[in-house]
Design goal:
The chain is of the alpha/beta class. 44% of the residues lie in helices and 13% in strands. It folds into two domains: 1-42, no CATH class; 46-206, 3-Layer(aba) Sandwich (Rossmann fold), CATH 3.40.50. It has helices spanning 32-41, 65-92, 114-135, 164-176, 186-197, 199-206; strands at residues 4-8, 22-26, 47-50, 96-101, 139-144, 181-182.
């Protein structure tokens, strides 16, 4: 029977999944001790899904370094902290995958959320590096470039959003087919095709959103 470790900084905030396969686990990816404890509790994993993130409305030009670091500390360094802790376990367990939730704005910066976009661009670059480094350890590394999804994070974004269940299904299908670059919703798929054909065109479109 497979296990699914469902994590949250506040474990009481997790829903009742009514599924014996789901194991609640306390985790704060910005805290070294928390990540270490989680890795000790979930040392039998084969797939690491890095989905924790934060979004602040910080523009590159007008925000302080401290303000910009809010996104970077969680979205970039927090994700790397998880990978450092769990990649050796996946390798020890024989094979597996790491899926990093990036964003379509990791491909082109949206100025209104410039700090967030920069943190996701950094994660995209590291995902490429990790893919090359971990391939020889039989670990595939996937980038998930999502658009607006119906979550608390996107509540104040005035765009059409994709239900989280639909995005999750598409992500799982992408992992099953070993797709390394996954666009899990209609908007990200459309933007992804623009990026693949003409990156500067995507930059022009996102910069005015």
């Amino acid at each position: 029977m497979c296990k699914i470790y469902a994590t949250s900084r506040h474990i009481d905030a997790l829903p009742n999944f009514n599924d014996n396969r789901v194991i609640p686990l306390s985790l704060d990816i910005t805290n070294n001790d928390s990540v270490t404890k989680a890795s000790e509790s979930a040392d039998d994993i084969n797939i690491l899904f890095n989905n924790a993130g934060i979004l602040t409305y910080a523009r590159i030009l007008t925000s302080s370094t401290n303000e910009l670091m809010v996104d970077m500390n969680t979205n970039y360094y927090g994700t790397l902290r998880m990978i450092h802790a769990f990649a050796p376990l996946i390798h020890k367990n024989g094979c597996g995958a790491i899926a990093n939730t990036i964003s379509i704005v990791g491909l082109a910066n949206m100025p209104l959320i410039g700090g967030y976009s920069a943190s996701k661009a950094a994660l995209f670059s590291s995902t490429q590096a990790l893919r090359a480094e971990l391939k020889k350890k039989n670990i595939s590394v996937h980038g998930i470039f999502r658009g607006p999804i119906e979550t608390d994070m996107a509540a104040n974004i005035n765009m059409q959003k994709t239900p989280a269940s639909v995005a999750a299904h598409n992500i799982i299908e992408g992992l099953k087919s070993d797709t390394l670059t996954i666009f899990p919703d209609p908007m990200s798929f459309k933007m992804g095709q623009i990026w693949l054909n003409d990156p500067m065109n995507l930059e022009a479109k996102i910069s005015i959103i």
